[in-house]
Amino acid sequence: MVKKWDKLTGIWKIKDSTQAGKAFVFDNEGYVYVNTNIADSNRVFLRNGNSVFIVYEVDTNKAPFLLNFIIKDSETKLEIDRLEGIFEFAGNN
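^ that's the sequence the OP posted. Answer follows.
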């Protein structure tokens, strides 16, 4: 697993009618967050009353690529949840 991947770093708009105007922001330090305002770069947010942040891991060894969102407690830095997914690039992205 790789904690960050330069090809993924940046702002990725969500193409979903229920998430209009939102984007995933993958920064070059390995953090990811969903943003409704591109100027907003707050990495820490509340989840179930706890202050948390999300980092990501990418495995590009085979297609489709594996992507893990790891939710961590902002005080202890311990993992409290994980969302696992897959993705691939379409066209010349």
